[in-house]
Write a structure and sequence with these properties.
The complex is a heterodimer of chains A (487) and B (99). Chain A has 487 residues and is α/β, with parallel strands linked by helices. Chain A contains 16 helices and 11 strands. Chain A has a domain of 310 residues: Amidase signature (AS) domain (Amidase signature (AS) enzymes), CATH 3.90.1300.10. Chain A has an 11-stranded mixed sheet with strand order 1-3-2-4-6-5-10-11-9-7-8, sandwiched between helices. In chain A, a hairpin with a 5-residue loop joins strand 10 and strand 11. In chain A, helix 8 crosses helix 16 and helix 10 crosses helix 13. Chain B is mainly alpha-helical and 99 residues long. Chain B has a domain of 49 residues: Orthogonal Bundle (Histone, subunit A). Helices cover 30% and strands 4% of the residues of chain B. The chains are: A alpha/beta (487), B mainly alpha (99). Chains A and B meet through helix 10, helix 11, helix 12, helix 13 and helix 14 of A and helix 1 and helix 2 of B.
Chain lengths: 487, 99
């Protein structure tokens, strides 16, 4: 107990705020001081606005003084990935294309966090337009892994994971299209949850692949993650893919749901390419659940090996379409050299986008182009059906599926220069997005040289309460998440 | 056009023109070779028997959603134009498209 303020939990901080032992301004100042002390090494943020954050903290203190505090998030700083709109703040997606863009409105998640009293602050670094697995594709420089500064924090939500791990914010939001919350969570020793497709509104999220994208929370504990999820989840009329689902009390579920669970172990996720230290940590977690009375059963997800291929057709096809809006006309970068409209499009995009974004636009345009649609896109959508059916078949026998989050711990910057090698980082996380399922990455160990390892729990549609309760059961008996980086 | 016989069918000039993306000769050569590797991995999908399988566009069924036809405030003009690269008299300035 009694970590420095910037490392305390929401429960501890909100109790201290409630008892007036600290003010929201004290807390925000502690977080700012921590950020000033470590940010030159971590580079988790593209930008921040300390004055605006302190003004929000003062407003929180004034509410509390009037007896109008809004609950556990009131006064808690939450950092937002630089792909989620915040009125009057930059929104760059870590791209030169949007280097000077200022958001004219709030995303629905931002609005809901404000209603809960949270302090929405900071523009967290990421791979450009959320395309990547290392945060090296940012136009504004890479983020470092707080546990191993020469290694990547994962991606694309690398800044969101690193900031929480380094105590530069209490909690954060990221977005996950193929593993972009879970993989950085596993690399940075934090909890990261990708909700069921449709649970959280995408309104105000810059679109990458619309049928796969979801916004989700990062926290240093399962409880912190559950509290943030409760604030952002729920139907939104401004997102037509938002689902009319009931939002349970996720925090209460941590206490009320105790299993025992039937756990499926998919053999396809424990084969070639899995780092032995990751395998050993995840297998130890499986034995822990067995010791708690859970049933462990081998299951098969036979189409797993096709996941990467399906993903890189569907995600790039959707990205080539979504990113067509960046044409240099209405907003974003406009080339100074172009002479006519078509040149403005082609030159502005050439100057504004980085190499990975260009590669994916080319691939996506190709698979959708005349003569290739059936062979690539339509076939990928059919295999997507089979991948989803694999999961639903497995859930006839088990409640939840347990896997490694990523095949390895964090790798060194520059180690994966080949795009295909980078794409294979997402091999265990991609299927979840294709099937629309919820999944959470939970710290479950460290490599011998001190790099974090995470396990992934995959749930049934809208089974977040069960997933978080199961993660909490593990966390209560293990101290991995309390090991802080040396910075 | 028939279905592609090999990943080398990727005509990068044609695709870049479709995508309205100006690429340098170096980028073209580099991307074509990298995407050749990615397409080779994607070719594996041809091994899957998809006879009678319905395509999935979204993981959950989607239905058209209608909103109430009620007026509500939108973005003020200044806000909507705030990020325009060039503007004049409440309009976005673009080059002439007809002679």
């Amino acid at each position: 107990m009694s970590d420095a303020l910037h490392y305390q939990s929401i429960a501890e901080l909100s109790a201290a705020l409630q008892a007036r032992r600290i003010s929201a301004v004290d807390l925000m100042q502690a977080v700012i001081a921590r950020t000033r002390a470590v940010e030159d090494r971590v580079h988790a943020f593209n930008s921040y606005d300390f004055e605006d954050a302190l003004a929000q903290a003062r407003a929180s203190d004034e509410r509390r003084a009037r007896g109008e505090a809004r609950g556990p998030l009131d006064g808690i700083p939450i950092g937002l990935k630089d792909v989620i709109a915040v009125t009057g703040q930059p929104l760059t997606a870590s791209s030169r294309m949007l280097q000077t863009f200022v958001s004219p409105y709030d995303a629905t998640v931002t609005q809901r966090l404000r209603e809960a009293g949270a302090i929405c602050w900071g523009r967290l670094n990421m791979d450009e337009f959320a395309m990547g697995s290392s945060t090296e594709n940012s136009a504004f420089g890479p983020t470092a892994n707080p546990y191993a500064l020469d290694c990547v924090p994962g991606g694309s939500s690398g800044g969101s994971a690193a900031a929480v791990a380094a105590g530069e914010t209490i909690v954060s939001l990221g977005s996950d299209t193929g593993g972009s919350i879970r993989q950085p969570a596993s690399f940075c020793n934090v909890v990261g949850l990708k909700p069921t497709y449709g649970l959280v509104s995408r309104y105000g999220l810059i679109a990458f692949a619309s049928s796969l994208d979801q916004i989700g929370p990062f926290g240093r504990s399962v409880e912190d993650t559950a509290i943030v999820l409760g604030a952002i989840a729920g139907h939104d009329p401004r997102d037509s893919t938002s689902w009319r689902a009931d939002v349970p009390d996720y925090r209460a579920a941590l206490q009320s749901r105790r299993g025992p669970w039937r756990i499926g172990i998919p053999r396809e996720y424990f084969g070639e390419g899995l780092d032995p230290e990751v395998a050993a940590s995840v297998q130890a977690a499986v034995r822990f659940y067995e010791s708690q009375g859970c049933t462990v059963k081998d299951v098969s997800l036979p189409h797993t090996e096709y996941g990467i291929g399906v993903y890189y057709i569907i995600a790039t096809a959707e990205c080539s379409s979504n990113l067509a809006r960046f044409d240099g006309i209405r907003y974003g970068h406009r080339s100074k050299d172009a002479k006519d409209a078509v040149e403005i499009y082609a030159e502005s995009r050439a100057e504004g986008f980085g190499p990975e974004v260009k590669r994916r636009i080319i691939l996506g345009t190709y698979v959708l182009s005349s003569g290739y649609y059936d062979a690539y896109y339509l076939r990928a959508q059919k295999v997507r059906t089979l991948i989803r059916q694999d999961f639903l078949n497995a859930y006839r026998d088990v409640d939840v599926i347990l896997t490694p989050t990523a095949p390895t711990p964090a790798f060194r910057r520059g180690a994966k220069a080949d795009p295909l090698a980078m794409y294979l980082c997402d091999i265990y996380t991609i299927g979840v997005n294709l099937a629309g399922l919820p999944a959470v990455s939970v710290p479950c160990g460290f490599s011998a040289d001190g790099r974090p390892i995470g396990m992934q729990l995959i749930g049934q549609p809208f089974g977040e309460a069960e997933l978080l309760a199961m993660a909490h059961t593990y966390e209560r008996a293990h101290a991995w998440g309390q090991r802080r980086p040396t910075l | 056009m028939s279905s592609p016989s090999s990943p080398t069918d990727l005509n990068i000039d044609h695709v870049a023109a479709l995508a309205r993306l100006a690429l340098t000769p170096e980028e073209k050569a580099h991307f074509a070779s990298q995407l050749g590797d990615v397409l080779a991995a994607i070719e594996k999908l041809k091994q899957v028997d998809v006879t009678g399988v319905e395509p999935t566009a979204h993981a959950f069924p989607l239905f058209n959603v209608w909103e109430a036809d009620a007026a509500r405030p939108g973005l003020p003009v200044q806000e909507a134009l705030r990020n325009a690269p060039a503007q004049r008299d409440h309009m976005i300035v673009v080059p002439k498209v007809v002679e």
